[in-house]
Structure formats: C-alpha cells, structure tokens
Amino acid sequence: MLSCNQDAADLLFDKKIVAPVIPQVINVTSSNANGTYSTGSLIQVQVIFNTTVVVNGTPRLTLNTGNPATTNVNYTSGSGSNTLTFTYTVAALNSNTDLDYTSTTALALNGGTIAGTTGVAATITLPAPGSAGSLGANKNLNIDTTVAPPTVLSVTAGTANGTYGPGSTISVRVQFSSNVTVTGTPQLVLSTGSPTTTAVNYSGMFTADTLQFDYTIVSGNNSGDLDYASTAALVLNGGTIISTSTPNPAAILGLATPGAANSLGANKAIVIDAVVPVITNITSSTTNGSYKAGDSISIQVTFSKNISVSSGTPTLSLNSTGTATYVSVSTNTLTFTYTVAGTETASDLDVTSLLLNGATIADSLGNSANISISGTSLATNKNIVIDTTAPKVSSVNSSMADDVYTVGQVISIQLNFDEPVVITGSPRLLLETGATDANIFCSAAALSTTHNCSYTVSAGESSADLDYQNSGALTLNGGTINDAAGNPANLTLVAPGAANSLGANKNIKIDTSAPTVVNITSTMADMNYSVPVNIDIQVVFSKRVNVTGLPELTLQAQQKLVVCTGISLGTWVATPISGSGTNTIVFRVNATSLCSLDLDYQGTSSLANAGGSTIQDLSGINAVLTLFTPGTTGSLGFNKNIRINN
Fold first, then answer.
1. CA distances from 585 to 335, 536, 544, 558, 610 (A)
2. Tens digits of residue pLDDT in 268-305
3. What residues have CB less than 8 Å from 411, skipping those under 6 apart?
4. DSSP class of residue 342?
5. Which residue of 16, 165, 522, 557 has the fewest CB atoms within a 10 Å radius of its CB?
6. Region 227-239: what's the mean pLDDT?
7. What are phi and psi of 342, to 5 degrees?
8. Distance between CA atoms of residues 117 and 533, nearest Å
9. Alpha carbon of 132 to those of 30, 73, 139: distances in Å?
10. pTM exceeding the 0.70 threshold for the entire prediction
11. Cα separation of 157 and 528, whole Å?
12. Do residues 538 and 570 lie in contact, with contact meaning Cβ atoms separated by under 8 Å?
C-alpha cells in the first residue's frame, strides 16, 4: 500500500500546474524624437508591459515638468496590447532638461484598472526615474517654454488661380510664425478627389519661415477648390520641423480647418481637373427606319465633358461592316456620317468601336478621352435597319377556289414577296388567257409581303390553267415596288408552270364560251317500263348552267307496235326538276298513255326555252340548245334502251 506522501508526489508528477503571468512594467519610452519641445508640443509616452494588458477607465502618469513641479498625463490608447500610450501637451512655464516621471509609483489607476487577459491585476511599479528602462534613460526630451514654438500662420500656393490638368505642378507653401529648420521629408496631405488624398513631399524652403510642397497632378485627380485634407494634414513623416531659435522647440503642426481663413482653399482658387472624358451616349439624329445603299446616317457620340479633336480623323466601326467618319464636334458631342454601301446589312444598326486613326480626342486640359463604348449602345437608343438587298417575288398565288370562271367574274391574284414592300401606282401583271392576253393591275398598298392584283374575265378569254405569260410578265407600268429601305424590287418571276408560279399553285380555268349540250342520257336501267312511270333524263352541258322557268325537252313516241294496241302516236314533254347551277340538268316526263320501243327526243331542236325560260352559264351567256341527231352518238336513244308499254 502506498503512503499518503507517495500519492501527493504522484499527483504533482502527473499534473503540471501553470500559474498565470502577472503583467508588469518593463520599459518606459516615447515615440517623439529627442529634442527640445515648447508650449503646445505633444509628447507621447509609452509604458510597456511584459504581456498584453486590458485597460478600463483612465489611468494616469505623473511627469516631472518643473513648473509646476508635476503634471498628470492621461492614458489615451493601447488597451489589448502590451503598450499603453499617455499624451502630454507642453504647457506654458513647463521646463525640464530631461523629461521623466516623478517616481516608481508615478503610474496610477485613477479609479480604473490595468489587468492581464486572464484578469490578473498588473503590477504598475515603474523603473526608478533615470534608471535603465525609465523615460529619462531612454529618451532625451528637453522642455523649454522660454521660446515659443513656431505655429502655422497660413497655407497658400505660389501657383496662380486657375484650372490645371494632368502633369501640371502646384507649389503649395506653408508659412510658420517664425523661422524654422527642416530635416527629412515632411508631407502635406491634399484632398485630390481620386485618389481621395495625396501626400505631397516637402521640396524645400521658399523663405526662412515658409516650406514649399510641389504637387504634380496625375490622371484622375480632381478638386473644385484645392485644399489640404484636414487640420492634421501636415505630418513629419520621420523628419523634423523646429525653430531656429535656441532651444529650437519643435513646430506645432496644426492647420486651420480646410476652407476656413488662412487655409489653402480660402487663400487660393485652384481647380484640379485630371478626369478623363468618357463616352456617355451614342445615338443618331437620323429618323428610325430602313436605309439602302447610298443613304447617309448621322451618328452622335457624347462624352462626359467638352472635348476637341485634333490631327487624324476618328471613325466608328459598325455592325453592318460599314464605317462612319468624323465630321464635326460641338461642345461634348462628336458627329459622324455613315454612307451605306455595297451589300452592308444590319437588322439594328450599332457601333462596335471608336477608332482614333491617329487623332487625339481630349478636353481643354489635355485629358485624353477614354474611347471605350462599353455601357452605351446606338441600337438601344435607335431602330435603324440597313438593307441593301432588293426584294423579290417569292410566289404568285390566288385566294380563289380551284374552279372554272367566266365573263365578268373577278379573280384575286396575290403577289408574295420575300420581304415587305410598298406599291405605288398600278404595276401590271400580264396573264396568258388564250386569244387575248390580259393585263391586270395591282393596287397601290402600304408595306406588306402580300399584295393583291385583280383580274376580271372578259369575253373571248380562256385558259385550261390560268398563269402569267412569262417570267417578265410583272412590270411597273409607271409605278414602284420598293422595300422599306427603298430598294427597288427584282420583278423577275419563276417560269410559268414552275414551282411557286400561279399555274403551279392553283388550278383556275377560264371559259367564256357558250354552254353546249355534250350528252343526253338517263340513270334509269335499260328495260321495259309499264305506264304510268316517271322517266328522268340527264342533259349534260359543257359547263355549269343556271335554269330559269321550265325549258322543254320534247320526246318522240315510236311507231305503233303490237304492245301498244289502241294507243295513238304523239309526243311527250319533259321539264327540268333539278341541276340548276351544275353542268347536268335533269328533265322528267310522266308516261301515262304512250309507248316507245326505244325512247328518244324528237329532233335536234327538241330542247327549247318555253314560256320565257332560259338556260345560261353562270355569267349569263345563253346556252346553245342544239341536240345530237336522235339515235346518234350522244343522243338519248344511242345511250339508253328504255322501253315503255301499256
């Protein structure tokens, strides 16, 4: 069994216990350069700990300032680091040949706290004044308020009032209340727009009490009234500005508020303009529409500021493959002219680039323009079409049904183009209509791909399949057929009968002849019929006819036969019962007392208009009613063997 002492020893061996680090002061110094400081000078004292500390409240450090004997200096920054900064402003009558704190207890919490990150309170004992690690040992800061430190009286410029562009140099001058000596390269931070500020290096003494800073303008800088950035715009940048009077106190660098009396902005009226002109808009004074070869289009390119053009001739590259050439400038706008040429085309004209061609486009201060067209578009602002292609007829068609047409009927014919065209006057289409070629006229019409021409059938015309005469059948006849751009149409048609011709697209027949009888027959069977019986006879015409009233078809009874005993010879009359408007008229006879061995009509003139009746074609032409000789080809007796007995 182990003893209690052995257990404790094992525990100590197995577990390492780490005590928290106690923050303590290891050094006191200053970020100010060694030298003599006078009334109003700022001296920053740094108290450095061995680890990171966190500060609450406002600890203070008591310095040995001679007259009065001590001065309490408040903590200003550093919490969360190992270095705390205390700021001391030299007051009138303060004096010390080697500034230091008063004692090892000169750092006081003043109701606040200084602790490590784990919360352990810091040990705030300081190294003994004058010993290693003390402020007095680390720095040689002399406080002498018998000579007033130089202060800035005014900031102005040696450059005349005016507007200045890139490359110009502005000489800014800072005047102190007394003569000064400069070491290193102090800087003056100016407000320059883009970038927001510019640190300008000290370039030399203008006079014994005035420093000069030469600012060279770079592209992008701009200011409506050049001034420095703030009251703290004058910085040492590792150098010094001290009085020439012993004990040479450091200058107080605070400046007047920008724009206030004695500031650069109040003393001078200097405008900085190094802003590059950029393209803000591209448009055209030419009306929206379509344009053809030879037409001129005016294009305007607007910049963000007034510009001028020198040397060469700028051009615009266009999406039509054409080029627009510079012609003039007015304030901030360049005008270019584009003359459409050749086979250039664009569904919506746009600019693809601006080319200088050796020219310079710049503002009055020499800022060369940025000629990128990104962000603006002619096509967005305008709707200009470039069309140098002549329209052509794609097909000839008709809205009429495939049918036979005769005198007086109107046939509508459509000319179809491959793009919209405008027709003026009365262009003419020559149709092939047999003995007489028909000139038909196409009406003036607004922009469309389809235009109507009207043909009225005249006497003597005929066609088995209506078509135009030849590929040159369409002529202007003093009119015009142009597309929206004004390109005259190519009037050549496909050959008659070829694909897309009128003859190929439609089957329209023209027939102005009088209707004639071409056949007489019956749908009744060849057989013996006993009276009474209705016999239907079909009279077939060469074309459709209309029937008015009751024309008569006279039938002839045959010689008296044995089967017809007691029956007298005579004639029968058949009248129309149907078929008006077609090419076949049905006549009906009611056989009640007569008989026939082979029914037929009486003679070639057996069909007649009776009682004012008519048989005419659809245009009103009277039919020729002459029949075939009974018993011959086409006659009823030839076509049928219908027998009637009693």
1. 80, 10, 9, 25, 16
2. 999 999 999 999 999 999 999 999 999 999 999 999 99
3. 398, 400, 405, 454, 455, 456, 457, 466, 508
4. T
5. 16
6. 97
7. 55, -130
8. 133
9. 14, 22, 11
10. no
11. 138
12. no
